[in-house]
Records
---
Amino acid sequence: MPFALYLLALAVFAQSTSEFMLSGLLPDIARDLGVSVPAAGTLTSAFALGMIAGAPLMALLGRRRPRRQALLVFLSVFLLVHVVGALTDDFGVLLATRVLAALAHAGFLAIGLTAATGMVAPDAKGRATSVLLGGTTLACVVGVPAGAGLGHLFGWRSAFWAVALLSAPALAAIARSVPGDRAEPAGAGPGVRAELRVLRRPRLLVTLALAALVNGATFCTFTYLAPLATEVTGLRAAWVPGVLALFGVGAFAGVTWAGRLADRRPLPVLAAGGAALLIGWLLLALGAGNAAATVLLVPVLGALAFGVGSTLITRVLYEAVDAPSLAGAFATSALNVGAALGPVLGGAALDGGLGYRAPVWVSALLVGAAPAALGFVRRGGRERQVA
């Protein structure tokens, strides 16, 4: 894999640390800013909503600009809004910074996915995607627990400062090492309307919906994993970073494993992994009161969720190969439809007085809704390609 691809993954690591770290900071943010935990959970949903809208919009804005230039602009904006977030005492302002950070992250990831798959052979999209998304899973392993630990020791604002500082070397590395390219001239390549028409393909739409369901289930539980661990499992708050790290270790293993299979054997990954994921959510919902069961299931669920999810992203990139500017945006938006829906549904279950196990049950329901879509994909074509 090209070295520049790993530098893109470094930037994704910084951005994903911010996206996921709120799972360990929500109780502290809620107390400090005088809002409820479900209200604080809207920070995650706001980020996801910004990603949904931002992915296609930012990809279109960056379509006629050199990719390196667009990546640098998006990462610079991301850094600056984290400084504002670290300084504010107003929940509304913090919410706005999450939306702006999401727009910047969406643009970076949408263009980054397209750039990453453009750096490798046409049949190696899965491996390129796994490297880039490896930055996300490493954020779960290192960045998110570190953010939770900083928040526990020095307050939640310290985690925002850390993300801003972490983005700076990524910015410098991309400026120096990512190959430059020319802006796409007007009229070159397929037009915007032609790329958008790709969305009419039924198999692509089903794959996008499946990715949204799986990621919605992941975020539904992950957003409220800290209170689940402390209020249901009975772990002390100091153990929360370790629980988040376990999820991240599993996620990294899942993305790595899936990256080796997504180009050649996607359907076995989706079928077997999806079934195992449903069983895993059900087991966690039933066994969350047991510390040993929780500690065992959290990394397994991380591996399954990210392994299935990254395989679906690879399928989107293959299916939308003739939408070179927007393929990454389609994939990014699908993931974040789920990332927005999951915390909202989990928060609604909490507001309904159903307890901190409720988000896990919702995750099981979301994955349980996926087999019909998966069956459609299975009937749609050959095993090697969902096309």
---
Amino acid sequence: MKTKYTYSFIGLSIALLLCFFVNISLGSVSIPIKDVFNSILGTSDNENWQYIIQDYRLPKALTAILVGSGLGISGLLMQTFFRNPLAGPFVLGISSGASLGVALVILGSGLFGGAFATVLISKWSIVIAAISGSFLVLLAVLIVSARVRDTMAILIIGLMFGSITAAVVSVLSYFSSAEQLQQYIFWGFGSLGNLSWNELFVFFGIYLLGMLLTIFSIKALNTFLLGENYAKSLGLNIKQSRLVIILATSLLAGTITAFAGPIAFIGLAIPHMTRQLFHTSNHKVLLPAVFLFGAIVMLICDSIAQLPTSDYTLPINAITSLIGAPVVVWLLVRKRKMIF
């Protein structure tokens, strides 16, 4: 790897650590950096600060790193796979499938009524429903992709699955109560601060599997940039590579949606912002760069969403879009062309 990339990675790593500790120190209660270190190590004299850090802020900061890096990398996979700069991690309908699963639990719970509905709607039931919904859409896309030769056809099919699931959610919303609609809308805002350590370990396990599949696909991703016909001439197994890339994206994007909700902008914009900084299409460089850059941006967005020294927390979706979209527009106008 060239020296200029080494320095860039060192800079991004330092920025990530800085953003991580700043994120943990900010909130309704401001905690000095020194006490943040002591609380993480379990040596703080202030039990309240130690509880806040270890049981709430540390899991939330780690969740932000997983969400930002995972969405950024899954967006990069889809943009390379489809050779489309507008492709994001949810173009295959994964997010829509997860939303449908959650809608069936929250909006459809009124059909069961009474106490059963109250038991039915829990954190794990929503996570399981979201994962199940995204898996069913993934299964449908994989079945279709095995029969379709054109990669762009898979993109269109994914968008159609997304439209179908959105239509079903609309029907469920029409017959739901105001309370159920409010709960579903709040889930759609996205949240990083609702995970316990046990949930975070499950999240990380599935995330790690998706990352391993992504690393396995680096050579295929670089080959796809040259087009499918050229990739075939180089001996690349197109069907196998398709399967691995789609599966990796689904594991990352589907799990993130299940545990943190549908978070906008990050998956679409982070790959472009990273390309503007690194000026390369080599995925051996882009993947770790997107990982670091996505995690940094997500930590910054979460720090702003917390409204430091305030008891209020803004929806993370609103912050990612309000901050990220103008930055991407500025980058593209400044560069006048999109590196791809």
